[in-house]
Amino acid sequence: QLFNASVALKTLEVLRSRGWKIPEESVVEGFAVLHWPARMEMLWDAPMFFLDGGHNPQCIEALAGNLKELFPKEKITFLLGFLGDKDYRRMLELLKDTAESVVCVTPNSSRALSGAELLKQVREIMGRPAESAETIEEGIRKVLETEKPPFVAVGSLYMAGELREVFPKVLKQYLRRKAIRGREQLDPEKRKEYSDRITDLILLNLLFLITCLPVFTIGAAITALYTICFRLMREEYSGITKSYFKAFRANFKAATAAWGILLVIAVPAVYYLSRTFQMEGVLQLTGLLFAMIL
Questions:
Q1: Of the four listed, 38, 65, 216, 234, which is most buried by Cβ atoms within 10 Å?
Q2: Which phi and psi (to 5°) does residue 49 adopt?
Q3: What is the biggest distance separating any 2 CA atoms in the chain, rounded to whole angstroms?
């Protein structure tokens, strides 16, 4: 992509020489916000999972060079899917030295090379452990379950487009299964300790929320009354008590919204305190709110 960027800059230089007015600020801003999906795109960082739509030998050669530079001491677990009319044998040759293992899939195209046929080619050319998957979703799952990152999905843009759509769901399922496996590997005492801490955290945050409700309501009412009094002093209201009631209701709604915003800010703040200071901040803040109510 650095090469492509240099071509773009050279094009801008030629256009300027021919009278085009292209501000330098626009060029800088354009490059700053530029995002090219499926070009060495990091989909997740823990575990590290990349997606690259390299579908010809030139792209794969650049990718292989980048991988060797980024991971000089590591091998890559690949998810591969190519079209049948591409030079896939040459692309497998270029990836061979960086590969740990391979999962083969079939891109969603009438021109696709089947995952089963690609599997044969991988075993013949790359000589690495390999398997195929019926769907791209299953392929992602199989790659993740090898537990051997970094992971790199490479091949047809048909595969890349579908992979970007299903990846978040598959990753969420994988992380959940991994967390459950990690919990099951804990000894009973450690598991009970973590469960108690989570329960305490939930209960303390609920206690804080319940404590906030009366403060929230009283604060909104006081704010509304104060607003009415202020406006009465400025003679903005006139008429019978009914008008005052309507005014109170209108101001109470506005005050409720303001206090609601404060509450939305306060709850995450207390959650942060509870995580940072091992729940002591929650206890102190909750006690302070109780004292304010009393």
A1: 38
A2: -135, 120
A3: 92
Give the model's confidence band at 200: pLDDT under 50 very low, under 70 low, under 90 confident, else very high: confident
In the prediction, which pLDDT does 293 show?
A: 45
The sheet carrying 76-81 orders its strands as: 41-45, 48-52, 151-155, 76-81, 99-104, 130-132
Q: Given the structure tokens 């040759």, which residue do they identify? A: 93
Distance between CA atoms of residues 185 and 3, nearest Å: 48
The single-letter DSSP state of residue 112 is B
Do the strands 48-52 and 41-45 form a parallel or antiparallel pair, or are they unpaired? antiparallel
Q: Which helix (H) or strand (E) holds 100?
A: strand 99-104
* Cβ proximity of 133 and 104 under 8 Å: yes
Are 153 and 49 in contact by the 8 Å Cβ rule? The answer is yes
Question: What is the chain's alpha carbon radius of gyration, rounded to the nearest angstrom?
Answer: 30
- Answer whether 150's CB lies under 8 Å from 164's CB: no
Closest CA to 81 of 58, 126, 111, 61: 111
pLDDT digits (tens, 9 = 90+) for 249-261: 666 666 666 666 6
DSSP, collapsed to helix, strand or coil, labels residue 52 as strand
Closest by Cα among 141, 213, 231 to 177? 141
Cα gap 101→152, rounded to integer Å: 11
pTM for the model stands at 0.65
Which helix (H) or strand (E) is 233 found in, with range? helix 188-233
What pLDDT is attached to residue 190?
Answer: 81
Question: Mean pLDDT throughout 78-90?
Answer: 97
